[in-house]
Amino acid sequence: MFRSGVGFLALFGAGWWLLGTSAFDGWVRPVAIVVGCALALGLMLAAQRLLPASAGGPLPAHLRRRFHRINALQWLLIIVIAVVCGRAGSPVLIPPLVALVAGLHFLPLAVVFSQPRLRLPAALLVLAGTGGLAVWATHGPDTTVRLVVGVTAALSLWTTAAWTVTGAASAPREPVPTP
Fold first, then answer.
1. How many whole angstroms separate alpha carbon 78 and alpha carbon 96?
2. Is the pLDDT of residue 154 over 80?
């Protein structure tokens, strides 16, 4: 289910989607949540069904160490952002700043995984964070900051997951030898 990172992209996309849909009231939010969860689940099932078992296999030790360092730095920065913004009384800045950090972390991951397509979520998450900061800087409501960041980030991760699945599904397959 987590082949080629599709599971992670789908689940983190769902998390961003939940943040973005927190801007909605009434019946719209539960419907949006169901739609987002169904989309994430659909992406994971499609990856399970369409990606080869070898997709996203174990990394060599030196690349695994780089991957862990990149993710550790990302999570450390996210914790620092949450603490500093919380203590400064500006929790609205947490999502856009986290989106910037998450986006930037995809750049070295593109190298580690030899996946240039990871530049797409890098760019789109940076765009999501920048958009959220622009809404905040122009004194837009906190709900709009969450909506802009959350929905843009979710759609960027889900788009990358779908691109991964469809790219693998349309790739020529090696013939299965017959006995």
1. 11
2. yes
